[in-house]
């Protein structure tokens, strides 16, 4: 296998879904790697560098953000004649190589993705990059068959060079539950509660949760994340929803505790490339209520309760009575350990 430099820009960013994927895959590749297989190249401002035994970490370049990726990292791989592995949907344009494109939201969900000037520029940038990737990259990773089919549909991509892997939940095994929220706010737990993780990203469709809370005053709706009702315009007011409580950013330990003890975890997205949180919820034994859109039915099959993300006027009690299957088959399939082995084997074939 030709030595591979892993694009470590994700180590300088806040941990969200794609960054989680990158860190966990790198950690699992570290367990498989032989000397000289990989190196992790990171910017000097990296703060979230994983502990590795077999993959050396190289701090390189003075730039930050996209400039580091497009200039410093690109120059590093060109200068050293190495192949690059890019796990977070972006790669150096001057040195296109192996890339994981998690979804085509910038292409298929363009209006929702381009709400501000900055995001409009980001959409254009990603569309340019995708065209280069599908033309020049020797191997493209993605996280669902749904995304692979979208790539074939919109870019006439060669299916032979698209490898479907996925995300995992096994990182959650390391998380120790923390009941700090219940200790600090015991009144939030005086009724059964539904739990969600909030985001202002339009495709996350958080208004669905607010409408459901309005229709179900006999339940609490506890939301982790930075959002608040005011962020969703004038349709909702704090006084109208006394059963909605925003918890702010909470630790993984608190998330795990909230998932294990909730009536169900709600995930009402319009669009997803994968969807790690419902997988985490299932791993704790929780029930999950998930949108019936994009890749989600493919991933979760019959192990979750499905809802139409465009219709929040539903009876949650009735939904929760619908039978679901044991999630063991899903949890066994979707692990970072399994997908790192699949990636490693394919890299050796290149």
Summarize the topology.
Blueprint: E1 4-7, H1 17-32, E2 38-42, E3 57-59, H2 65-80, E4 83-86, E5 98-100, H3 105-108, H4 110-113, H5 117-136, E6 140-142, H6 145-155, E7 162-164, H7 180-184, E8 193-197, H8 207-215, E9 220-224, E10 244-246, H9 252-261, E11 264-267, H10 276-283, E12 288-291, H11 296-300, E13 305-307, H12 316-320, H13 328-333, H14 336-349
Parallel strand pairs: 1-2, 1-4, 2-3, 4-5, 5-6, 6-7, 8-9, 8-11, 9-10, 11-12, 12-13
Keywords for this structure?
single chain, 350 residues, alpha/beta, Rossmann fold, 2 domains, seven-stranded parallel beta sheet, six-stranded parallel beta sheet, 13 strands, globular
């Amino acid at each position: 296998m030709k030595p591979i430099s892993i694009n470590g820009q994700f180590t300088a960013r806040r941990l969200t879904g794609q960054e989680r994927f990158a860190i966990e895959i790198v950690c699992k590749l570290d367990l498989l790697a032989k000397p000289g297989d990989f190196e992790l190249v990171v910017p000097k401002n990296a703060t979230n560098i994983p502990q590795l035994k077999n993959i050396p970490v190289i701090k390189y370049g003075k730039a930050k953000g996209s400039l580091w990726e497009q200039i410093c990292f690109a120059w590093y791989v060109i200068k050293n004649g190495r192949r690059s592995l890019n796990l977070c949907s972006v790669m150096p344009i001057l040195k296109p190589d192996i890339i994981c494109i998690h979804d085509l939201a910038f292409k298929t969900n363009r209006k929702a993705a381009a709400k501000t000037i900055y995001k409009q520029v980001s959409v254009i940038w990603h569309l340019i990059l995708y065209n280069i990737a599908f033309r020049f990259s020797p191997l493209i990773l993605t996280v669902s068959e749904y995304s692979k089919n979208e790539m074939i549909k919109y870019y006439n991509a060669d299916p032979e060079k698209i490898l479907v892997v996925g995300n995992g939940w096994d990182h959650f095994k390391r998380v120790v539950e923390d009941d700090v929220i219940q200790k600090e706010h015991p009144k939030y737990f005086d009724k059964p509660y539904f739990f969600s993780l909030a985001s202002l990203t339009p495709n996350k469709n958080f208004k669905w949760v607010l409408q459901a809370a309005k229709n179900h005053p006999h339940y609490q709706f506890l939301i982790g994340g930075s959002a608040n009702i005011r962020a969703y315009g004038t349709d909702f007011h704090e006084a109208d929803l006394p059963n909605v409580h925003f918890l702010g950013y909470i630790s993984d330990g608190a998330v795990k505790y909230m998932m294990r003890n909730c009536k169900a975890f709600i995930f009402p997205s319009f669009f997803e490339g994968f969807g790690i949180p419902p997988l985490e919820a299932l791993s704790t034994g929780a029930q999950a209520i998930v949108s019936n859109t994009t890749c989600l039915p493919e991933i979760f099959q019959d192990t979750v309760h499905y809802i139409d993300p465009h219709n929040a006027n539903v009876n949650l009690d009735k939904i929760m009575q619908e039978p679901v299957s044991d999630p063991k088959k899903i949890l066994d399939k979707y692990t970072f350990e399994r997908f790192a082995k699949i990636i490693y084997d394919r890299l050796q074939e290149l």
